[in-house]
Each structure stands twice: as structure tokens, then as C-alpha cells.
Amino acid sequence: MAKIAIVRVRGQVHVRHDIVRALEQLNLRKHQHATVVDESPVIAGQLRKVQSYVTWGPVSEETIKKLSSRARANGRWYALQPPRKGYGRKGIKMPFTRGGALGNRGDKINDLLMRMV
User: Fold this and answer.
1) Which residues pair with 34 in a beta bridge?
2) 111 lies in which domain range?
3) Residue 12 DSSP code
4) What angle do CA 32, 33, 37 make, to 5 degrees?
5) pLDDT digits (tens, 9 = 90+) for 35-89
6) Whether the predicted model's global pTM rises above the 0.85 cut
7) Mind spelling out the 3-state secondary structure of 51-104?
8) In CATH, what number is assigned to the domain containing residue 104?
9) What residues contact residue 37 under an 8 Å CB cut-off, 6+ apart?
10) Count of beta carbons in the 10 Å neighbourhood of residue 31
11) Residue 1's pLDDT is what?
12) Domain count, the chain
């Protein structure tokens, strides 16, 4: 089963309560926290709900090993630093497909995580 890394990109101000609950279920309570989960239909539904606050993509085993130094709460989530050279050209309010930081990054999530470790 494929592993997906999810990184919370945006903060907590003015977030609807149903989105806050979905983020908490994904163990993403704060800005720049990350989690690694197995790909499933339930996770896909939660990602659709919170896509304006997170970025995600399939993660490699090498990246998971590097993340282990940042693990918190028995490895359920990772506390990361802001990425070196930022999230993207257009910031954290635009989708990745348009040059921003939000949504599905595909394999480029590994590059982002390595800049945040």
C-alpha cells in the first residue's frame, strides 16, 4: 500500500469547524506539521475537504527515514521547519498546479519535505 505525506501549509485563523476536525483527524493541528498515512478512500475524502490548507503526495522510504528525527507523539506526526526557499512562486493561497503550495504535489513532495527537515 502506498504511503502519502501530508503537510499543513496554512494556519488556524478563520478555519471552519468541520475542516478543523478533519485536520485533527489527520494529526495536523499546527502550521508546518506533517503526517504520513496509507492511501485509502477515507484519506482521499479528507484530503478533498482540507485541500485549501494542506499539500500532499506519495512519499519515498528514504524521505520517511529522514523525517524520523522530527517525529513527535510516537511517530504520528512530524514537527517541521519552514521550507528553505519557500513553498512556491505564488505562495500558500494558490494550488500547486498554478505555481502555489496547495494540493497534490505528486513526487515533488519529497523535495519539499527534504527542504523542511
Assistant:
1) 7, 78
2) 3-116
3) S
4) 135
5) 999 999 999 999 999 999 999 999 999 999 999 888 988 888 999 999 998 887 8
6) yes
7) CCCEEEEECCHHHHHHHHHHEECCCCEEECCCCCCCCCCCCCCCEHHHCCCEEE
8) 3.30.1390.20
9) 3, 4, 6, 26, 43
10) 15
11) 77
12) 1
